[in-house]
Amino acid sequence: MRPVWLTLGIMALASFAYAQAPSVNAGGVVNDGNYSSQGVAPGSIVGIFGTNLASKVAINDTIPLSTSLDTVTSVTFNGVQAGLYFVGPIQINAQLPFESLAANATSGTVDIVVTTSSGASAAQTVNVLPAVPGIFTVNQSGAGQAIATDNSTNLIAAPAFSITGLATSPISLSSGHALIVWCTGLGAVTPPIPDGANSSNPDGSYTLRNTVLQPTVTIGGIEAQFVYSILSPQYVSEYQIGVVPAAGTPTGSAVPLQITINGITTSNQVTIAVAP
To answer: For the chain, what are the domain ranges?
Structure first.
C-alpha cells in the first residue's frame, strides 16, 4: 500500500509520442522529500529530472521495487540498478541503491544513467553523502505542513480539519505522546536491507532496522527527546523518527520542525501544529 503523501506527489502528466533518447538534467537528482540539491544519501528516495524519461506516467506497486517500468528499462547509479517508484516524461522517483558507492566508502560521486527503449542518457554525476534528510510534506514541495503523526492517535500534527480527506489534530504537549516524523535520506541502517525491499518477513512480522547515524529533531527550535530512528517497516526507503516534544516547545499552528543528521539540517520552512 502506497502512503498518501507519495500518492499525492505523483505528477499528472499526459502521455506523448515517445521517440527520443532520455536526458537527465545536470544536477537533476535530488532528495525527494525536500528537493535539496546538496546531495543524496544511499537508500533514499530520489527525484530524477530530465526529458524523454518515459513515454507516460506509470506507478510501481510491487515490493521489492521493480527495476523497469513502462519504457524505462533501467536506472543505474555506478552500474547498480535502482528500484523504481514512479516514472513520467520529465520525472522519475527511484531508490538510490545502498551499494551505489564503492566498497567501504561512505561518500563520493556516482554516475546516473537512464535507459529506455529508445536509448540511454548521457551519464550525470551525483554527489552521495552518508545522510541528507528530507521531511515529507503534504504539498510535496519540501515546505509547509509536515507529514508527522501522533504515535498514539495516528493523526497528522496539523490544525484540525485543515487537510481535505485526512484526519488531523495538533500534537499535544501535555499528552506526552510521541511524534513520528516521516522522512527520507537518513542513510545506512542496521541490520542491512536489500535494495528495493521493505522490512516485512514471510511470517508477517517485521525486522526493525535502526539508522546507523542518530538524528536530532527540533520543534520550534527546542530539541525533542529522541526515541528511535528506523526504516519504516512496511515501506521502501521511508524512514520514521520517533521523538517526544519537550515541555517548553512553542505552540501554534505552524511551528518549525527540523532534522539534523550528518551535520545537515532541514529547512525551517517545514511545520507542524502544536497544542499545550
So the answer is: 4-128, 134-275
Q: Are 270 and 194 in contact (CB under 8 A)?
A: no
Q: Of how many residues is the chain composed?
A: 276
pLDDT in tens, 54-108: 999 999 999 999 999 999 999 999 999 999 999 999 999 999 999 999 888 999 9
Q: Calculate ∠ Cα 251-253-259, nearest 5°.
A: 75
pLDDT tens per residue, range 188-213: 999 999 999 999 998 999 999 999 99
Cα 119 to Cα 7, 23, 122, distances in angstroms: 29, 10, 10
CATH architecture of 4-128: Sandwich (2.60)
- Which residues sit opposite 49 in a β-bridge? 91
Give the chain's end-to-end CA distance (angstroms, integer).
34
Instruction: Sort strands 216-219 and 222-223 into parallel, antiparallel or unpaired.
Output: antiparallel
CA distance 27 to 244: 36
Residue 227 grid coordinates: 526515541
Nearest of 70, 76, 73 to residue 57 by alpha carbon: 70
User: CA 112, 74, 76 angle in degrees (round to 5)?
Assistant: 25
Whole-prediction pTM: 0.91
Helices (H), the chain: 4-8
Beta pairing partners, 228:
242
**8 Å CB contact between 55 and 10:** no
Question: How far is 26 from 23, CA to CA, in rounded Å?
Answer: 9
Amino acid at 263: G
